[in-house]
Each structure stands twice: as structure tokens, then as C-alpha cells.
Amino acid sequence: MSFDRLIEKIVEKQNPTVAGLDPKLAYIPEYIKEESFKKYGKTLEGAADAILTYNKGLIDELYDIVPAVKPQCAYYEMYGWYGVRALAETIKYAKSKGMFVITDGKRNDIGTTMEAYAIAHLGETDIDGEKEEAFGGDALTVNGYLGSDGINPLLTICEEKDKGIFVLVKTSNPSSGELQNLEFRGDETVYLHMGRMCEDWGKKVVGKYGYSGVGAVVGATYPEMLTELRGELPKTFFLVPGYGAQGGGANDCKGAFDQNGIGAIVNSSRGIMCAWQKIEGLDEKDYAKAARQEAIRMRDDLKSVIGEMKLK
Ligand SMILES: O=c1ccn([C@@H]2O[C@H](COP(=O)(O)O)[C@@H](O)[C@H]2O)c(=O)[nH]1
């Protein structure tokens, strides 16, 4: 259990980017929606069909240059079981193209319930002796604020299946400081304490590149805290949201990386998915090409501040 597979993909592509797949209908070109609505009407099924077609188009244009995708479950669950099927199909398709899949579910519960989440998203479900993958992501985002009871069941499955988790530590949203920045026990912040818990949860599962399979979510919108946490948590790999649509830039992300240019993967969802809507006169059929162009721009932007990514 580590992020070795992810790190190798990042280094191979020289790209520390994860493309977020948060498909709102407003981001999907009309021609795709028309096709799906012709088949299924303006229904949950029609919407889910459009999402899957849109995602596959994006993946086809991104898989050779971007190492990972991050579907956010909410954008699928809003279409009921059709949407959840589109999520499962998206994960399967991205994996068939060799991409690393981070399922953004921010799951959080205790004991056996957390074990059920772990089985659903990272493990295999036992159906009376027959085992099958339900979703099959490579990593899952989780909320660690229930403590070890919510994390230990995941660790067991992650070890068995070589999967990873990203625990919310310092989130990118404006109100994240209301709780996460509180100081206690002298001047230790809640986010730093949560980060140290990640370092501790991961200490037995450190991979060959020095990072464990217990990662942390730290927002690009708080660059000083990113730098502080990189210094404090040398074995914890970071998932960094907040680049692009939330205002973060490459310089804000710099502190997340180590001296070898690894240690983090930076997410952009709307920035990549909606790139086509920002290009005047673009034929909407070229939506995925516009996403590719933005992903290349983002890769080069990040590389300009972190340099070459090397395996040690
Ligand atoms: O602290 C956090 C944790 C998760 N997210 C998620 O990342 C993407 C960001 O999307 P953009 O369109 O690139 O802003 C989205 O899925 C969030 O739920 C986050 O933003 N911040």
C-alpha cells in the first residue's frame, strides 16, 4: 500500500496533474446531450448517458499525457443509480486506458461501516463466496475526523489491494479555517495535528519512493500551509485541489513538492472540463481537444516551477 504506482505514472508523463471529472450538464456540449436525450429523454438515464459519453471523450484525449483522473461522486449520485453506473463505467474506462483513479467520495464512518465503504471503493465485495470489484478505484478521499476507527478498516484493504487514501487535512475552501486553523496544545493547529495523524497511520506502509499510502488533501489556496505541511510530513503524499477555477496557480503549489519534484498531484476539474467554453468560435465537438490543450498548459505551468520529476 503506497502511492508508488501513481508516482511512477507522474514521472513517466512528467506531469503531476489529476484531471477532475465533475460533470455538470452545463459543461457538456449540446450535441452529446441531444444524442442521449433522443435515446432516453430528459431523464436521469439520459443525463447519465451524456455524462459517460462526455467523460470517455475527455479520457481519450487525456490518458497519454495526464496520469490520473478524480471523479467526484456527488456529480454522479445526483442522477441516482444511473449516475452511479456512469461513475462505475467511468472508473473502468479510465483504468482500461492505464490511468490512476482517485475516487473523490470524502467517505467517513466507523468500524464495519467504514469497512463497507473500503470494500465498495477499493476492495472486492464478497457475494456468498464469489468476489467482485464494485467500483475499483485506486485511491479514495476520506474524512479522518472520526479518528482511527474510520481509518484502520481502510488500511487493511489498502494493504491487501495496493490502494491508497487521501485524508482531508487543510481543505481549499474559504471557510476551512473555521475549524482546521484552530490552535490547541500550545500552537499546534487542527490541520497540522490531522497531518501528523496521517504520517502516523502511514508509517508502516511507506513505499519505495518514501511516501506512504496515506495521503493528505491540502489546498493550493493556502500556499504557506502547503509548504509548512510538506516540511512536517515527509512521508505523506499530497492531493492538491484549488488550482485554476479556485484561483490557485503553479507558484502556490510549489511548496507541495520535494527536492525530486514529487510528493504531490495537483487537481483541476472545471479548468480542464470547461476549457472548451472559454475558446471563442470553437466547434463544441472539439471540447476534449480543448481539455487536452489546457492539460498541457497546466503541466508546463507546474513543470516551470518544480522542474524535472525524478524517482530517487
Ligand atoms: O479541499 C478540497 C477538497 C476537495 N475539493 C474537490 O476538488 C475539486 C476541485 O474542482 P475545481 O473545479 O478544480 O475547483 C472538486 O471536485 C472539489 O469537490 C476541493 O476543491 N477542495
UniProtKB/TrEMBL annotation:
It catalyses: orotidine 5'-phosphate + H(+) = UMP + CO2. GO terms for biological process: 'de novo' pyrimidine nucleobase biosynthetic process; 'de novo' UMP biosynthetic process. The keyword DNA repair does not apply. Its EC number is 4.1.1.23. Pfam families: OMPdecase (PF00215). It is an enzyme of class 4 (lyase). Residues 16-279 form the Orotidine 5'-phosphate decarboxylase domain. The active site is at residue 106. Keywords: Decarboxylase, Lyase, Pyrimidine biosynthesis. SMART domains: OMPdecase. SUPFAM superfamilies: Ribulose-phoshate binding barrel. Belongs to the OMP decarboxylase family. Type 2 subfamily. This is Orotidine 5'-phosphate decarboxylase.
